Amino acid sequence: MKTLVICSGGLDSVSLAHKIAAEHELTGLLSFDYGQRHKKELGFAAACGERLNVPHRIIDIGEIGRSLSGSALTDDLDVPDGHYAEETMRVTVVPNRNAIMLAIAFGVAAAQKADAVATAVHGGDHFIYPDCRPGFIDAFQTMQRHALDGYADITLYAPYVNISKADIVTDGAKHNTPFAETWSCYKGGARHCGRCGTCVERREAFHLAGIDDPTDYEDREYWLEAVRTGSERQNG
After folding, report:
1. Residue 31 annotated as binding site
2. Per-position DSSP letters for 85-99, written without gaps between them
3. Is 17 annotated as belonging to a binding site?
4. Is 11 annotated as a binding residue?
5. Which end of the chain is flanked by fewer CB atoms within 10 Å, N or C?
6. Is 9 marked as binding a ligand?
7. pLDDT tens-digit series, residues 142-151
8. d(CA 187, CA 196)
9. For residue 235, what are the contacts with CB-CB under 8 A and spacing of at least 6?
């Protein structure tokens, strides 16, 4: 399949890009600037495009992002520390973000005569993010089938939607993903903080996958406390 990958520059989407390059025909990477505080991730997406020798395009949807208020990723709110399994992480939701990005990506893919749009949503996102769940993926595919009826037949490819981030690390290693050249931290500092939900999830994923984590964290051990606390709350 000629596949366009939505690539943020994070571990999941960069691993997906390497997977597509190995297993299909990667036509390009598409990133979005929606005013995210961790905008430095876009540089990692650009580097991925250069590494895989495919075009990388950044689409500016900053005005849309400014209208999606109430998220710690776009507003002047603190990004909470802790595990994704905690209710406090809901402040990192950007309403309808994936639906907006996917709709644009399908338009680009149709114009470029691509066969598929690939997204790296995964099982670990289901608790917090409704537009990362299998039901959303299935419904969006149906919607796009109607939207492009008679013009294009494009598949929404989400190979990670039912697996964990640890599984993604394993798959990424299989396809020689340079994990150190990816960015996850929502705080967007000079180094990964090691304490926000994405850092904790990243650190835990490498541990569960049994693969060395090359990431430079400000706090390399906090994830142990966060995972323990999250597990205790889930279990009542």
Report:
1. no
2. TSGGGGGG--TTHHH
3. yes
4. yes
5. C
6. yes
7. 999 999 999 9
8. 7
9. none
